[in-house]
Amino acid sequence: MTVHASHGTPVYFTADVRAIEAAAAAAPNPPQLMERAGLAAAELARDVAGGTGKPVLILAGPGNNGGDAFVVARHLKQWYFKVTVVFSGDEKKLSADAAAALGAWRAAGGRNADALPVRQEWGLVVDGVFGIGLEREVTGPYAGWIEAANGSGATVLAIDVPSGLQSDTGRVLGCAVRAHHTVTFIGLKPGLLTLDGPDHCGDVHLRTLDLDAQALRPARGYLMDEGVLAGLLEPRRRNTHKGDYGSVGIVGGAPGMVGAALLAGRAALKLGAGRVYIGLLAREPMPVDPDQPELMIRGVEELFKLGHLNSLAVGPGLGQAPDAAYFLEAALGTPLPLVVDADALNLIAADEGLSTRLRERKAASVLTPHPAEAARLLGVSPREVQDDRVRAATKLAAGRNSLVALKGGGSICAEPDGTWHINTSGNPGMASAGMGDVLTGMVAALIAQGATPQNALRAAVYLHGAAADRAVDGGAGPVGLTATETIEAARTLLNRQSAKKSQI
Question: Domains in the chain, ordered, with CATH?
Fold first, then answer.
């Protein structure tokens, strides 16, 4: 999925979009938003249809999304496309704008069919069935329309949001259109970018309709892409030493899980930390990592005696034995910025005392749960987390006084003040062991080098996914992509960004 929008672009819930539309309608000489939206969609439809000469099928639903579709149909007809419009709604129930759009379509010589035509070869299918705010499951004839669009073999363009996709959450409501392109209006929507959205939206194209949405309704959510790397770290001076780039401590590696701590340590080292110490819970710690001898391996007690650490990570391979809880409590008691992952999150979820220690910390805390870990922290089911990922992430950040990255398709980075960002990088190859440990080490490394915890978290989440994308582009996945391979790719991407900055 490619999102054709810039870093920091607002992401709005349905209620916010409705408020923006109402504010625009209340202004002197209000804009004709449906006409603007329909023209924007028609222009993209013309571009993606190309010069095939094949007919265009437009599916017009019973609401304002259908009104947009009538405007698309009118413009395409005026541009000499052969257009077939299917509409089976109740004209008497159309909004004033949608009814006007239908009237203009008919005045241009357009006609509607009330059922899908006999199967034929379409050059383009335009999905204007359901838009934002859909809450009910799609059934009956409209489900048949969606099935026909998905099985048409044609390029599919969705208007505002693929029909059947809940625009606030990305949930599929029974069935949903699988579009190749989605043209969305005013601002981006969370459901396009997270959960099932990326599997249904194709390339996402934002058209603001010439509205200053931020002026009408300041956003709390934003798009996150490679722009998060700009200004993250200062270019390195020649006259420096390892102490200038921070020291990271990692607590974990219980018996049988030492690899998780090593992965976090390797990620921290290769993302630029000057020194990385690993405090292993295993009682007979290995003296050296043979694949990364630069890592300094200690017994976990020794790690807490070091006075020069700049950031601390706890959780990779930690386990849930009593000594794990003991050292987690010790980590929570330090004044260092703290990255918390894996079993450290599970221990906090099960122990109110540890939870209180986390909430009361003065230094920054960064939590990086996957959906099941987030569910334990929130006391809900993983399904409930996934059903509204933004709400889960923001609730967790506020409730634990922490920065949160809710991992998964379209990872959500949330802050305690309610601000949130959705990441655009990553691919299914990341569903493999050790990926979370690598992210933990990356966040800790960027903090140790002087990035703010907020910027370090966002940058690490983006880099993590972008590194996986780079690895897949190079042929290493998505099937069989490993966490180790993403470390190497992340280092390359971070250095490329640093090189760009040093040339300015």
Answer: 3-222 (3.40.50.10260), 312-502 (3.40.1190.20)
